Structures are given as C-alpha cells and as structure tokens.
Amino acid sequence: MFQLLLSSLTIFPLNFQPQLLTHLSISNEDVKENGSVIAQNQENNAKFNHLKQQLEQAGFEVIIALPPRRGAYGLLQVSTKKIWINPVVFDLNIALPTIIHESVHASQVCAGNGGIVTLGLTLEPINQARPFFQGYTDTHRKDLEREAYAVQTQPNNFEIALSLLEKHCQL
Predict the structure, then answer these.
(1) How far apart are CA 128 and CA 31, in angstroms?
(2) Residues of the chain with pLDDT > 90: what percent?
(3) Neighbours of 112 (CB within 10 A)
(4) Residue 156 burial (CB < 10 Å; 0-12/13-18/19+)?
(5) Distance of CA 22 to the CA centre of its chain
(6) How many Å separate Cα 28 from the centre of its chain?
(7) Over 50: is that where the pLDDT of 117 sits?
(8) pLDDT per residue over 121-143, tens digit each?
C-alpha cells in the first residue's frame, strides 16, 4: 500500500549548491509577512512575490515551509499542485532561483494537463548545474530537471519563467 501511494505521487525537489547562484541574492534579513517575502533586495523581493502570485493565479498553492522531502529547497507535488519553498532559501540567498525552478515545473504540469511533460526548450543549463540532473536514471525525470535548471541558470531567468507560465498556464 505504501509503495503504491509513493508511485502515484510525483514530487520534484530542487536540490543544489547555494554557491551556484550567489549572483541572485535575497538578503539574509528576510521577513515573512502575510505570505509574501519582504527582503532588503527589493528587485528580487518583487520578482519572488510576482512569481508566487502568478503560480497561485495558475492554481498552484505556494507554501513557505519545510517540504515533505528532507533536504529539498523547493518541491512541487504534481497531484495536488502544491509547491513548497523551504524557508532556508532566504538565508542562503537562493529564494528567487528556487521559485524560478519550481515555476518551470509548474509550467510543465500545465502543459501536461494533469501530468507533467517537457516543454521542448532548447536552452542549456550552465555546466555547473549538470551534476544536479545528470544523476537521474529516469530519462523523463532527467529531461524535466534539465529544463528547470536551464531556465534557472539563464541571465533572464525571471522573464523566461514568467513567459512559460503565461504560455502554458494561460495567464
């Protein structure tokens, strides 16, 4: 029974090293207020909150709490359309890339009409991100993660994530 439950529940965690994305930082002095994040870096704060609002408008529940999978910074549960953002990402200065990564997975869910599919993106992730998806033995899962890391590591990652949500989630 437990094995059956696990196989019907698809979870996509984001695990990566903070030093990969230090150029995208939210201050260590973050405060959470009414489900929004207030940070000293106003540009990243506004981008994080805008993506969070877009995800919620697309029918996803964004939860800033420890994900149900230990060690995950971000996690999307396909069956319930819940996205967890681990609060530690604010201390690690990786909140924005984390929600961008999960936004790509949300776009993959929208495109999959209840499942999750690759979007056919031709973007490539930076070489430093490759170890984080190359280890997956499941080719489909590897391709899903490759797309998320590819978007997450682009200089215009926020704009790409927004356009994918708009296109695939019909915002």
Answers:
(1) 30
(2) 65
(3) 15
(4) exposed
(5) 16
(6) 20
(7) yes
(8) 999 999 999 988 988 899 999 99
